[in-house]
Specification:
The chain has about 400 residues and is of the alpha/beta class. About 50% of the residues lie in helices and about 10% in strands. The chain contains 16 helices and seven strands. Helix 9 links the parallel strand 5 (about 205) and strand 6. It is elongated, with a radius of gyration of 33 Å.
């Protein structure tokens, strides 16, 4: 297991915008934009019918099914390699404005004092996404998607990563904590909320359908922003209406990423809100820090007063029962100062009630701890040691 490589929290707020890919950034499934045409003569429906049928028959993950189907159908027809998948990716059509969206939004965030990071969380193929023009231009901080393992000739031989609608959510937690490596178990480590690199309130999730619902719900429940998009050519809003009705999304807009579009205006408004909100969050955590310091100081003061009261009570104890009760309370205190230890040593030598029962189990344990905390050897500590050893 790899060691945790956690990205440190920035000195400016980070807004992570996470995208599904198919029908969110692109009008169609990526496999239907080159690959299926090569092996199925363009019969897209048949490919998905057979793939989904195989998943149902073998109780198989649908993403594993399509990955198997892609490799199986390519055999003897086309040479399927990592390079050819990236080449298919280069043919994928993108919605209007996507080409310059990522850098334009980054620059807008920069003007507002907010660091913008773009992430892909998709059930599509990582290799095809990496072949798109936007990915090659460095649009994405990280691409989380299904992918193959390849042999030394670049031929896919086994699934390396499978991303389905439920395990998509893990990547949101990775982004939140800055632990981006998919094999880094540090994502499970505890961090105080103020140390999260990208708290959920600063996560935007943009998707189009049911497969995005777990991520949308998680973002919504934790104060983030979920956006449903629909194709502006068909104007079919049935999916986003359903998601809105079920409280899965806060907003919906056409998948139009051009400057001045509804989506552009909405995301910029979220950036503006993030800039203002993070000022308030910063003030909140400053107040929290001061409150914690004050609370700790108060606890220390109360603890010190309690210890002094117990020392005074022990010094004046006139019965064995009272002495045992006081010692019982003192055993609950973890730390004693040097001055307090010295007072307790004097009491053991001067108060006959205490001195007489030094060999009793609870009193003996307590005074051994006091001698250890005191850490000095002199006539007084030597005498205490003798009394502890000899039982008077």
């Amino acid at each position: 297991m790899s060691a945790t490589r956690r990205r440190e929290k920035e000195d400016k707020p980070v807004l992570a915008i996470c995208y599904d890919f198919d029908k969110t950034l692109s009008p169609d499934d990526m496999q239907a934009q080159g690959y299926i045409q090569s092996v199925y003569d363009g019969d897209v429906a048949s490919f998905w019918t057979e793939s989904n049928g195989m998943a149902e028959k073998f109780e198989m993950d649908t993403n594993l099914a399509y990955m198997y189907k892609m490799v199986d159908e390519a055999r003897g027809r086309i040479l399927l390699t990592k390079d050819s998948l990236e080449e298919y990716g280069s043919r994928v059509k993108l919605f209007p404005g996507v080409e310059d969206w990522f850098e334009r939004i980054r620059q807008y965030g920069k003007q507002k004092g907010v660091i913008i990071e773009h992430y892909i969380i998709s059930s599509g193929l990582k290799e095809m996404i990496q072949g798109t023009s936007v990915a090659k231009n460095g649009a994405f901080e990280k691409v989380y998607a299904s992918s193959f393992m390849y042999d030394d000739k670049g031929v896919p031989i086994w699934p390396a990563q499978v991303v389905n609608y439920t395990n998509k959510t893990q990547f949101l937690f990775r982004i939140e904590k800055g632990v981006l490596d998919v094999n880094d178990s540090g994502v499970n480590d505890y961090f105080p909320p103020e140390e999260y690199r990208v708290p959920f309130r600063n996560i935007v999730y943009i998707g189009d359908s049911d497969t995005d619902i777990p991520c949308m719900k998680l973002v919504n429940l934790n104060g983030g922003h979920s956006i449903g998009v629909y194709n502006n050519d068909t104007l079919d809003k049935s999916k986003v209406f359903k998601m809105f009705n079920d409280n899965r999304i806060k907003y919906f807009a056409p998948a139009d990423y051009t400057k001045g579009s509804e989506l552009d205006t909405l995301v910029k408004a979220i950036i503006n809100r993030t800039a203002s909100n993070e000022i308030l969050e910063s003030i909140h955590y400053e107040c929290k820090g001061e409150w914690i310091d004050n609370r700790n100081d108060s606890k220390k003061s109360i603890s010190k007063r309690n210890k002094i009261n117990l020392i005074i009570a022990l010094d004046g104890s006139g019965s064995f029962a009272t002495t045992h009760n006081i010692i019982g309370d003192m055993l609950d205190i973890e730390e004693w100062t040097k001055d307090e230890c010295e007072m307790l040593i004097d009491i053991a030598l001067q108060n006959s009630q205490v001195k007489y029962i030094l060999h009793d189990k609870d009193v003996c344990i307590f005074y051994k701890c006091i001698l250890e905390s005191y850490g000095q050897h002199n006539e007084k500590t030597k005498k205490i040691q003798e009394l502890l050893s000899n039982g008077q």
